Amino acid sequence: MNEAETRAELIDPKLKESGWGVMDGSKILREYHITAGKIQTGGGRSKPLIADYVLMYQGRKLAVIEAKSDELEVGEGVAQAKNYAEKLKLDTTFASNGKEIYQICMKTGEEGLIAGFHAPDELWSKTFATQNQWRDKFNHVPFEDVGGTKSARYYQEIAVNNTMAAIADDKQRILLTMATGTGKTFIAFQIAWKLFQTRWNLKRDGSRRPRILFLADQAFNAFSAFPEDALVRINPKEIGKKGSVPTNGSIFFTIFQTFMSGGSAGSPTIQKSGSTSSPVFSEVSHIKKANGYMYILECADDSFYTGSTNDLKRRLEQHQNSEGAEHTKKYLPVKLVYYETFNRIDEAFNREKYVQC
């Protein structure tokens, strides 16, 4: 038999016999695309990584199976099985030619032939040796695909799962380091989505929704899947008037500069309003000479605009005279609330893109 026939006639029945696709909460993903293939010179892509089977239970991917024709030795699929498991960060992986099943434990390094596939609950217990209520709750919340328009890449799923596991284990600080273009906002959205849907909060009692601060005002629209009343934009002016930050929501958006205190060269001037210690930005009165600037404007609709230039005074005049960006033209007047200086304009441009992320 060829590989497709081996899967249909030999491997699929063994999976069903073990409860996969039969037991509640279990799912078999066939021909699962792990990657679309490396981008090559000229714009093409290399061959994509496609796993024959991925086994899911209780919302988590637990194992991968590399299938080979029953005419080949079972060992022919071991290298691929290990590669896929390493990519997906799975503890267990299998190679099978339908007649034999070869299991590899990526955690301990143990490997060898087994009589049959683990049942879903057995594989779950093998993967998660200790019980954790919040981990299970997080896993039961599927990734939000925003109406089918977005799906998680394999490394994004790993980042979210590792973050949720750390939260479930009561870790107080979590740091994700990701490159530009890898979907940081998407990952932050999925983390917030799981926290919101499970009603996780600092008391960990599920009594109310969490309050999450997101320091990227321009990401507001990316969170449109949340209920409208859950999203709040923090307005520095309102903080100054009320003397407190808003609490009437679950996801709060602003930029880092809103929470800065103290002034320095190349930084915005901070003024206090009344008796409150909440900072309110005033117009930067002095612009330091430099070859490049990254700047942030506050627009008339309380949104923020980030840009870069080699002449900040001239650029501000352009914005005020409707000669700047399309966004600032719509919401005049604008006010400079923050800027940074650079020796080169390309450094300022890179900083602009970093802040926008």
Description:
29% of the residues lie in helices and 22% in strands. The protein has 357 residues and is of the alpha+beta class. Strands 1-2-3-4-5-6 form a six-stranded mixed beta sheet, with helices on both faces. Strand 4 (92-96) and strand 5 form a beta hairpin.
Which helices and strands occur, and which strands form pairs?
Elements: H1 3-17, E1 26-35, E2 49-57, E3 60-67, H2 78-88, E4 92-96, E5 101-105, E6 111-114, H3 120-127, H4 133-140, H5 154-168, H6 184-198, E7 212-214, E8 231-233, H7 236-242, E9 251-253, E10 270-272, E11 279-281, E12 292-298, E13 304-309, H8 312-320, H9 326-330, E14 335-342, H10 345-356
Parallel strand pairs: 3-4, 7-9, 8-9
Antiparallel strand pairs: 1-2, 2-3, 4-5, 5-6, 10-11, 12-13, 12-14
Helix pairs in contact: 4-5, 5-6
Which key terms come to mind for this protein?
tt1808, chain A, 3-stranded parallel sheet, Rossmann fold, 14 strands, 357 residues, 6-stranded mixed sheet, 10 helices, alpha+beta
